[in-house]
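Usage

Read records sequentially. Each one opens with the input sequence:
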Amino acid sequence: HHGAPVSLMKALGPDPALTAVLADRVGESLRGPGGSGLGGSGLQPDDVVLLGAAGSSDPRAVADCEAVAAQLADRLAHPVRATYGSAVEPRLGEAVRQARESGAARVVVATYLLAPGWFNDLVGRCGADVVTAPLLGADRDPDPRLVELVWRRYQGL
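and closes with the structure output:
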């Protein structure tokens, strides 16, 4: 309705709950049955991990993505580089190419997107060895930690 009041809630990330879900998605994508690797994540020391985000011209959003990458690196006990599909460097496809040129055993992309769509398709075509699913998808129920995070943000309005 025209003229109706609108409230904006704080961005979902960075938040430890979001980072935990991202880390679990990396582990699910790599481990399979009887997984191993660094900290049980399935990662090996010569893997390159990239956080695949949409990108934004807003420096605050970019800083948030960088913070999520740092939190994910701590959680995985493995370096994570934030990369973007648009608006800002480094671009995901270029980062995948650079990782290959540097001799990475595997390139793993932790998809930092809420749901399937144009950017998720772009991430899926980046050429990485492993690409995690977006945070929400039709093939699974929403992670309870994400539901709780949305609820906390809503309550903070």
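Summary fields computed downstream for this record:
- The beta strands are 48-53, 80-84, 107-112, 130-131.
- The chain has one domain: 16-25+43-150.
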